[in-house]
C-alpha cells in the first residue's frame, strides 16, 4: 500500500490516491467523513476551521460500497478557495500584479526560508501553501481507509492527548479501547479527566490571548494486531521504524516514543523487558507492556502504544520572532492575520491515522491481499496458528 497527496492549503482541493487496498472491502464515505470531522475539532484552532467543513468525494476505486482493487482516489474541497481564487488560480498573471500578495518574510519554525532557498521561489506563498498542515486532511482520509481495513480485521486504533504545555493527562492505562475512542471523540482537548481538560483549555486560551502558541504530546493506542507483523531482517522492514518515520512526518512533530520510551535509558533490563507467558485462550502474551507492543521491528501481539511530541505552532499572532525580509535583507518582526494557537488535539487524530496507515500497509505486505475476504480468512488462520505455536 502507498499513497500520495496533492493540493495547496488555499487551492481548489486536496487529493489523495491510495494504492494497494484489497478488492471487495466494504468502504463508505461515512467511514472517511467521521475521521475528517474529528480532525477539524479540538480546542485551540484558528478561524480557518470555521470556514471549512471537510467532506470527502470518492472519485475512484469504489463501487456500491466496496473497493475494486484499483487505486482509490479521494478529494476534499477547500471551501476557503472562493476567497483566494485570484491569488491561487492556475492562469499566469503579471509579475508585479498586486493581487499576488507576495510574501517575502519567512517565519522561524515553518518551512518558509528553507523551502524558498531549495526551490528558488521569491514568493514564500509558493512554499507555505504546500507545507501547511492543511495537507493532513487527506492524510487522515487515506488513514481512514486504512483504519476501515484494520477494523474489519478486528484491529482498533485510537488517538488522544497526553500532555499540553506541561499539563499532563490522567493515567488511562487500565482503560479499554472503546473508552479511549470515546475520549478522542468527546473531549475538546481529548483527555479523560474534566479537571485536566479545563486546565488545558485555559492554557490554550491564555496562549491565544497572548498571541503565542503551545505544543504537547499525543498517544496512539492499538489493540488487536497479531504478533509477528513487520520484520527484523532489514532496516526498512522494521514496523516500529516505519511508524516512527511517519509520525515525525506530521507537521510540527519532533519525536516518537514506544511504550516507556526514553524512560528506558534510566532503568535496568530486568525492569524493562516484558516477560513471556502462554495460556490456551490467548496463546503467547506478556505480563507487562513496557515496550509498547514491539520487539525486533515486529509486533508482540500486545497493544501498540506510541507517543509523538508536537512543538508549538510556528506562526505567532502577537509574539513575532526576529527574521529577515528576503528582498530587502532588513530585519523585521512578523505579524500575521490568523493561525492556530494549539493544534495538539487535532494532531492526535492525524497521528492516529498515519499509524493506522503503516499498520495496514504492513499487513497487506505480509499476507495475500488482492481480495479482502481472503485476507480476512488468512489473518484468522494465522491468529489460530500462532496461538497454538
Ligand atoms: C493539525 C495541525 C495544524 C497546524 N496549524 C498550524 C498553524 O495554524 N500555523 C502554523 O504556523 N503552523 C501550524 N502547524 C504546524 C506547521 O504546519 C509546521 O510547523 C510546519 O509545516 C513546519 O514543519 P515542521 O514543524 O515539521 O518542521 C500545524 C500542524 C498541525 C499538525
Ligand atoms: C487549514 C488547516 O490548518 C492550517 C495549518 C497551517 C499551517 O501552517 O500548517 C496554517 C493555518 O492555515 P490558514 O493560513 O489557512 O489559517 C491552519 O488553519 C487544517 O488543518 O485544515
Q: Give the terminus-to-terminus CA distance.
A: 29 Å
Average pLDDT number:
95
Helix and strand element order: EEHHEEEEHHHHEEHHEHEEEEEEEEHH
**Strand coverage percent:** 15-25%
EC number: 4.2.3.5
Pathway: Metabolic intermediate biosynthesis; chorismate biosynthesis; chorismate from D-erythrose 4-phosphate and phosphoenolpyruvate: step 7/7
Pfam family, one: Chorismate_synt
Family: Belongs to the chorismate synthase family.
Structure explained in plain terms:
By secondary structure, the chain is α+β, with helices and mostly antiparallel strands. It has a single domain, classed as Chorismate synthase, AroC fold, CATH 3.60.150.10. It is 33% helix and 20% strand. The protein is built from 11 helices and 17 strands. The strands form 6 sheets. A 5-stranded antiparallel β-sheet has the order 8-7-9-15-10. A 4-stranded antiparallel β-sheet has the order 1-2-6-3, with helices on one face. Strands 4-5 form a two-stranded antiparallel sheet. Strand 1 and strand 2 form a beta hairpin. The model has no long low-confidence stretch (mean pLDDT 95). The protein binds flavin mononucleotide (FMN) and the ligand C=C(O[C@@H]1CC(C(=O)O)=C[C@@H](OP(=O)(O)O)[C@H]1O)C(=O)O. The site of the ligand C=C(O[C@@H]1CC(C(=O)O)=C[C@@H](OP(=O)(O)O)[C@H]1O)C(=O)O has 12 residues, from helix 6.
Amino acid at each position: 500500500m502507498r499513497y500520495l497527496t496533492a493540493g495547496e492549503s488555499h487551492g481548489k482541493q486536496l487529493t489523495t490516491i491510495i494504492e494497494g487496498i484489497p478488492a471487495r472491502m466494504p468502504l463508505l464515505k461515512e467511514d472517511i467523513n467521521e475521521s475528517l470531522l474529528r480532525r477539524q475539532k479540538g480546542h485551540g484552532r484558528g478561524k480557518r476551521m470555521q470556514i471549512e467543513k471537510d467532506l470527502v468525494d470518492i472519485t475512484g476505486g469504489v463501487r456500491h460500497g466496496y473497493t475494486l482493487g484499483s487505486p482509490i482516489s479521494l478529494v476534499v474541497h477547500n471551501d476557503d478557495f472562493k476567497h483566494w481564487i485570484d491569488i491561487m488560480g492556475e492562469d499566469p498573471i503579471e509579475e508585479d500584479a498586486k493581487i499576488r500578495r507576495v510574501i517575502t518574510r519567512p517565519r522561524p519554525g515553518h518551512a518558509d526560508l528553507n523551502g524558498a532557498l531549495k526551490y528558488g521561489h521569491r514568493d514564500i506563498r509558493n512554499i507555505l501553501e504546500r507545507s501547511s498542515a492543511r495537507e493532513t486532511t487527506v492524510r487522515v482520509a487515506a488513514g481512514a481507509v486504512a483504519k476501515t481495513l484494520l477494523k474489519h480485521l478486528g484491529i482498533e486504533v485510537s488517538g488522544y492527548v497526553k500532555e499540553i504545555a506541561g499539563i499532563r493527562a490522567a493515567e488511562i492505562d487500565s482503560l479499554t479501547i472503546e473508552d479511549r475512542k470515546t475520549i478522542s471523540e468527546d473531549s475538546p482537548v481529548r483527555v479523560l479527566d474534566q479537571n485536566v481538560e479545563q486546565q488545558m483549555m485555559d492554557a490554550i486560551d491564555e496562549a491565544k490571548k497572548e498571541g503565542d502558541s503551545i505544543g504537547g504530546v499525543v498517544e496512539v493506542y492499538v489493540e488487536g494486531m497479531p504478533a509477528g507483523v513487520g520484520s527484523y531482517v532489514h532496516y526498512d522492514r522494521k514496523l516500529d521504524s516505519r511508524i516512527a518515520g511517519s509520525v515525525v512526518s506530521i507537521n510540527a512533530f519532533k519525536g516518537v516514543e514506544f511504550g516507556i520510551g526514553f524512560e528506558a535509558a534510566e532503568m535496568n533490563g530486568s525492569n524493562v523487558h516484558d516477560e513471556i507467558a502462554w495460556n490456551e485462550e490467548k496463546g503467547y502474551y506478556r505480563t507487562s507492556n513496557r515496550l509498547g507492543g514491539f520487539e525486533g521491528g515486529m509486533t508482540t501481539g500486545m497493544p501498540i502504544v506510541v507517543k509523538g511530541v508536537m512543538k508549538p505552532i510556528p506562526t505567532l499572532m502577537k509574539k513575532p520572532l526576529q527574521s529577515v525580509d528576503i528582498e530587502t535583507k532588513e530585519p523585521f518582526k512578523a505579524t500575521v492575520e490568523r493561525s492556530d494557537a494549539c493544534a495538539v488535539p487535532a494532531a492526535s487524530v492525524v497521528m492516529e491515522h498515519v499509524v493506522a496507515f503503516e499498520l495496514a500497509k504492513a499487513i497487506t505486505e505480509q499476507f495475500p491481499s488482492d481480495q479482502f475476504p481472503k485476507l480476512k480468512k488468512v489473518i484468522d488462520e494465522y491468529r489460530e496458528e500462532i496461538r497454538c505455536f
